[in-house]
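User: I'm writing a tutorial on reading structure tokens. Could you give me a worked example: one chain, its sequence, then its tokens, then a sentence or two explaining what the tokens reveal?
Assistant: Sure. Here is the example chain.
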Amino acid sequence: MFAHADKESRLIKHLNAPFLKQLLLVAVVVVTLPVSAEDKGDRELQKRIQDAHAENADHWIYNDIAAGFKKAKQTGKPLFVTFRCVPCKDCMGFDGEVASGSERVKLLAADKFVCVRQVEMKGVDLSLFQFDHDLNWAGMFLNADGTIYARYGTQSEKGADEYNSVEGLINTMNRVLKLHAGYPRNGATLKGKRAAKKPWGTAMDMKTLQPNLRKGGQTTRSNCIHCHNIHDAEHDYWIEQDGKLSHDRLWRYPLPENIGLMVDKTNGRSVVAVAKDSPSESAGLQTGDEIDLINGQAVSSIADIQWVLHHVPNSNNQQVVLTLASGDDVAVKLNRGWKETDISWRGSIYSISPRLRVWMPPLNSFQRKDAGLKDNENALLVKWINRGSLAGKAAAKAGLKQGDILLKVDGKEVPSLPQKLNAWIKLNYQVGDTLEMLVLRNGREQTVRVPLVE
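And here are its predicted structure tokens:
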């Protein structure tokens, strides 16, 4: 190692161009990036699940959070943990950039952080690692003592990559480094980033987790516990505890847009627009404001804003206090309904009753033309009925057929996408209700009344 460094030093003396000197110095740093063999974690798991993004990412400890904490204590560096559902296609491009594609992320992560790539949820401490489990990629930054500095990773109906970017992540990482340098003096601004303990330790302790996932054993692509499975199990737990699932529990991690703020996706804290007649406009927030704290918590990303909003009830007479870079405090008052938003993109809602068990994608342009549909007329094609399920059997028995074109439900225009229809049914109907479905079959409109049985 030292002989190699001496050789590089002699080479640098003979270089006249400053740019080449800088390039060689970077190359020397890159040589030192990989973690030691004992810190590499479960690389056999990487092979089993075919995690291609981790192949050239030796600066990441693989699927071993405990090893990450140990190394963070030894080095004094902050911990950077990413959670990635490898089989999921959403966030694939961004995940590749973070894991190994972006040299800027790689150099900063390897030099200033202890990095852990977590690809399964089996042994994860769910009380410590609380984040939006409907994401396909999420990042958390922590101190070795378990203090949480920041979260990164945001998704909505606009798509998995709408809010995530290399530049945005780097901005958050640099803010985390400042928080780390100021710790523990700034501990009061970090206290709220940890929530109350869950009733269970890990996913394997959740009695409401799907039985096939609680079997344990060696993880493969086919038996991996996905992040959204945690929300699925939580839904069933709340039903057991409360006798039903309150819709208020479904309004998770609302965006700043829910209070009327459009925050720059790359900066993560600066206000780029304020919605007219919104709570934020009423409070006096303006374009150009930069958010330092919300309810006393340090903000490093949009995900940090969502974390605070997540814990504010969806009820009347609520408020959040934004502390701006100017030093001003602005109180935004909220009333019931402020949290409600489009949740159709969330994978965890599919486990919620009532279930229709019918796959209905939008029609393509040729199918629309053949059916004689207008350009502004929504319609969904009954592509597949799950006849192995109770709900699928009930739909088929009621007369719904593959090839039917769904036009209306209970006299209302059908949503434009199947996931939106799915969410709409779950939010507006209960098991025992009947859906009156107007379908187009062989050019003729017919009504099919489908009972919701599960």
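What the tokens reveal: The radius of gyration is 25 Å. Residues 1-35 have pLDDT under 50 and may be disordered.
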